[in-house]
Description:
Blueprint: E1 4-6, E2 9-13, E3 19-26, E4 31-39, H1 48-53
Antiparallel strand pairs: 1-2, 2-3, 3-4
Amino acid sequence: MYAIRYExxxxxxxxxxxYLVHFIIDKRKHxxxxxxxxxxxxxxxxxxKRKERR
Length: 54
């Protein structure tokens, strides 16, 4: 439903608010994992540090 933007990470714009939700979909486990909810004025590369922690 949402396009892949970074590797396997997808982004969803939250309506009425300037936020992007960064997430992946694991089809094998039927799971959605959210990495970050960021204001759109922030640098999107910041969230990648969160992904490295997993």
